[in-house]
DNA sequence: AATTCTGTGTCATCGAAATGTCATCGTCAC
DNA sequence: GTGACGATGACATTTCGATGACACAGAATT
């Protein structure tokens, strides 16, 4: 779990990351809102610890505006102002928790862990065609419910075909999407990979049709074509 | 938003619901853990406010056991014991926040609103996969009930894998979530950490599968291959 | 302050598995 | 029939992951 700490007080710049690292969290540090913004752009964090007052402004304003764009990473505010009005302010603008300085490091750790745990668990999509299911997250393919293990290239080609069912895909397109720049467009790698893919999917009719001079496409052999 | 308040003190039985209703929350009241259990069975709540000490026991025990079954509704504990050890204890067993009595009603409202908004998206504090248990609070891992001691990085990687069981996780994702910005994405730290993790978990079949060219994932080796 | 210990990162090497190449065969369209 | 294109088996090459040994930093201990 990775956390961004945004803090300008030199003492806390040392203490807070140290405390969080002791809880096996990976910690990055930023000193200003501008720095934090850049770090948030570059990396994926599970939680952000924001000092309220920073050299370039009040962090609540920043968080508020990011929330407007749907930014959802949990935030813990560290604040020296312990008036209740300010606390309410912090929550109402999308922050998820706050801690009043001075605080016990154990408490900080507990709260950050609690916030980090609620990560957005997004389900990667599952592609289907005929009796073939391709689970992009698990990198698994099933035919008629039976698990079929594919090589990386084979998977990648099938994924591309399944994302455009019944469209004819040229060898060039396949090379461009499934191979890197080093691939030789003149070779017959695509043909070979298609052959291997067919061999793996021998659990039903051949769904991969060669379109002479054009490329390949997925098609159900029973269905009529144009 | 609907909230269940579990409280036996007659004074608070009046004051707490009144305060929450003033914030436009729908409030139900229970006086014992048994009553609460029934109410939770019948209705869906966005948040539960639990007094720590109730006539039929300490509510932490109840919450802890419900969490084991994946129950995820946010809980706010009201506690008279303000020692930090107790606070940490409350969190580590799946509670999401606590408030020390006596408290300001405004603060109660703020916290309940925050928890309700957060929704039941928190993950249960103990992750399980096959015969491996990972306690995020205690930072302990058990395989087949046997305690396995892990290094911080190893724990962190396992936690991330276990939070997305059977999903293939790229080295990049692992670096981003388990290492800080100083990590070199080109190095093979991830591979080495995986090797070490496997070595520690040698108490059963290898659950960590390398997916060539993509990353790693947790999988039960029972699945047949072709 | 010096020393040991512990955790973590780096590097080099090994070996297996994935993938590309090539030669040959089959087949489809005209 | 024939010429071009696709299919396929055998083989060569490359890549990638696993791992042992070592290096280094910081914490703990003396």
Give a quick precis of the structure.
The structure is a homodimer of 226-residue chains. Chain A contains 8 helices and 13 strands.
Task: Describe the structure in your own words.
The structure is a homodimer of 226-residue chains. The first copy, chain A, has 226 residues and is of the alpha/beta class. The first copy, chain A, folds into 2 domains: 116 residues, Rossmann fold (3-Layer(aba) Sandwich), CATH 3.40.50; 93 residues, Winged helix-like DNA-binding domain superfamily/Winged helix DNA-binding domain (Arc Repressor Mutant, subunit A, Orthogonal Bundle). Helix content of chain A is 38%, strand content 23%. Chain A has 8 helices and 13 strands. Chain A has a 5-stranded parallel sheet with strand order 2-1-3-6-7, sandwiched between helices. In chain A, helix 6 crosses helix 8. The longest helix of chain A has 13 residues. The model of chain A has no long low-confidence stretch (mean pLDDT 80). At the A-B interface, strand 2, helix 4 and helix 5 of A face helix 4, helix 5, helix 6 and helix 7 of B. Chain A binds a DNA duplex (30 and 30 nucleotides) through helix 8.
Overall shape of chain A: elongated
Low-confidence stretches of chain A: none
- Give the count of structural domains of chain A: 2
State the fourth-level CATH superfamily of the largest domain in chain A.
Answer: Response regulator
Helix-strand makeup class of chain A: alpha/beta
Number of strands of chain A: 13
Give the CA-CA distance, first to last residue of chain A: 53 Å
Task: From the alpha carbons, calculate the radius of gyration of chain A and give it in angstroms.
Answer: 26 Å
What strand line-up does the widest sheet of chain A have? 2-1-3-6-7
Average predicted local confidence, pLDDT of chain A:
80
> Based on the structure given, which CATH architecture of the largest domain in chain A is correct?
3-Layer(aba) Sandwich
InterPro entries (chains A, B): CheY-like_superfamily (IPR011006), OmpR/PhoB-type_DNA-bd (IPR001867), Sig_transdc_resp-reg_C-effctor (IPR016032), Sig_transdc_resp-reg_receiver (IPR001789), WalR-like (IPR039420), WH-like_DNA-bd_sf (IPR036388)
GO molecular function (chains A, B): phosphorelay response regulator activity; transcription cis-regulatory region binding
GO cellular component, one term (chains A, B): cytosol
Protein name (chains A, B): Response regulator transcription factor
């Amino acid at each position: 779990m990775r956390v961004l700490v945004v803090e300008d007080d030199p003492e806390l710049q040392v203490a807070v990351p140290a405390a969080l690292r002791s809880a096996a969290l990976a910690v990055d540090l930023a000193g200003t809102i501008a720095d934090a913004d850049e770090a948030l752009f570059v990396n994926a964090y599970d939680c952000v610890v924001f000092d309220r007052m920073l050299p370039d402004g009040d962090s609540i304003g920043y968080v508020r505006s990011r929330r407007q764009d749907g930014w959802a990473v949990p935030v813990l505010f560290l604040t020296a102002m312990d008036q209740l009005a300010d606390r309410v302010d912090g929550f109402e603008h999308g922050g998820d928790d706050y801690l009043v300085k001075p605080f016990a490091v154990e408490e900080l750790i507990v709260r950050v862990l609690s916030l980090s745990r609620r990560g957005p668990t997004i389900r990667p999509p599952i592609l289907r065609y005929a009796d073939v299911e391709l689970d992009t997250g698990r990198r698994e393919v099933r035919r008629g419910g039976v698990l079929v293990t594919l090589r990386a290239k084979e998977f990648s080609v099938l994924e591309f075909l399944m994302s455009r069912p019944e469209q004819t895909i040229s060898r060039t397109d396949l090379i461009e999407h499934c191979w890197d720049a080093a691939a030789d467009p003149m070779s017959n790698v695509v043909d070979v990979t298609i052959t291997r893919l067919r061999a793996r999917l021998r659990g039903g009719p051949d769904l991969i049709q060669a379109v002479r001079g054009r490329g390949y496409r997925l098609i159900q052999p029973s269905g009529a074509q144009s």
